[in-house]
Design brief:
Elements lengths: L1 E6 L7 E5 L7 H7 L17 E6 L11 H9 L5 H10 L5 E3 L10 E4 L8
Parallel strand pairs: 1-5
Antiparallel strand pairs: 1-2, 3-4, 3-5
Bound molecules: FE2/S2 (inorganic) cluster.
């Protein structure tokens, strides 16, 4: 079980939901399920509109596998540093910014910050 807290200027207050780790749902799926208006478009890791800042609250974040697609979009958006790319590639350590449609949440509490316009379904 993970606590996922969404925070944004688009929300009148933070929204915390419980997520079942191990489900193959993405962070964007979770947000949509709880009517959290993270912007999105392609839902396939290509447009970058679902960009979120993810803070992992545990001291030892779980390893991630950053896809090439997500890495490229984060680079294009200037949201991943050279060091973060290396850390993701070598140590599987998560970068600070992620694409909600590519992020599979784990059994760890996170804070998800997003801006932007409301999603257009
Ligand atoms: Fe396009 Fe996530 S919705 S990258």
């Amino acid at each position: 079980m993970a606590n996922v807290t969404f925070t944004s200027p688009k929300l009148s207050r933070d929204v915390t939901v419980y997520a079942v780790a191990g489900a193959r749902n993405t962070l964007l799926d979770l947000a949509k399920e709880h009517k959290v208006p993270i912007p999105y478009d392609c839902q396939d890791g290509e447009c970058g509109s679902c960009l979120c800042e993810v803070t992992i609250l545990s001291k030892t974040p779980r390893a991630i596998s950053l896809t090439e697609k997500e890495k490229e979009v984060l680079k294009q958006l200037g949201k991943i540093s050279h060091d973060e790319v290396a850390n993701a590639e070598v140590n599987d350590m998560p970068p600070h910014y992620r694409l909600a449609c590519q992020y599979i949440f784990r059994d760890e509490d996170i804070i998800v910050k997003f801006d932007g316009d409301e999603a257009t379904p």
